[in-house]
Design brief:
Helix 3 runs parallel beside helix 8. This protein has one domain. With 174 residues, it is mainly α. It starts with 9 loop residues before the first helix and ends with a helix. The chain is built from 9 helices and no strands.
Length: 174
């Protein structure tokens, strides 16, 4: 049986092989594996570098590709319902696991208070303000994914509103 290591089907196989090799090398030659850490750090940095423009372009072209505000509203409403539903489902799972596992059992009230005093929970207004990018380039440069999503949403809606006049920008982003 021949396993293809190129093309779209080969990428999962390559990842699996690299994963197994990293475990083997790390177990048998730990000092050599530690010397390869800079390569891993470079790889992660490159992934972080490319993810922001990919997310921005994907969100923007996805929304701009709708072409119609009514269609965009319908899809946006469905997306919001799914998001709220999944958030509710995740909260139920989290609470269920919390009740079963009982994290924090045995922690005294004094320890808990000293821990919670160090944490500042933002209000709804602060949270919404943190989502808004202060500048177009700033959101992309900081790499704040939530701000990049909001920026992509605004640009995509603007491109839908501009219609054919924004075709050059749509093609550039695609």
């Amino acid at each position: 049986m021949k396993v293809a290591l190129t093309g779209k089907k080969g990428i999962p196989a390559q990842i699996l092989i690299a994963f197994v090799l990293s475990i083997v090398v790390g177990s048998m030659y730990p000092s050599f594996a530690k010397s390869l850490k800079p390569l891993g750090d470079i790889f992660i940095t490159l992934i972080k570098m490319i993810i922001v423009p990919v997310i921005f372009c994907t969100i923007t072209t996805g929304i701009a590709g709708m072409g119609d505000m009514k269609k965009l509203k319908r899809v946006g409403t469905k997306m919001l319902v799914v998001y709220v539903g999944m958030t509710f489902f995740a909260c139920v799972i989290g609470l269920g696991v919390g009740y079963m596992v009982r994290p924090g059992m045995g922690v005294t009230m004094q320890e808990a208070q000293s821990f919670t005093q160090a944490i500042k929970t933002p209000g709804v207004g602060d949270f919404l303000l943190m989502m808004m990018p202060s500048s177009f380039v700033g959101a992309l440069a900081k790499g704040d994914i939530v701000q990049v999503l909001v920026l992509g949403l605004f640009v995509g809606i603007s491109l839908v509103g501009l219609g054919n006049r924004a075709s050059a920008v749509k093609e550039l982003l695609e």
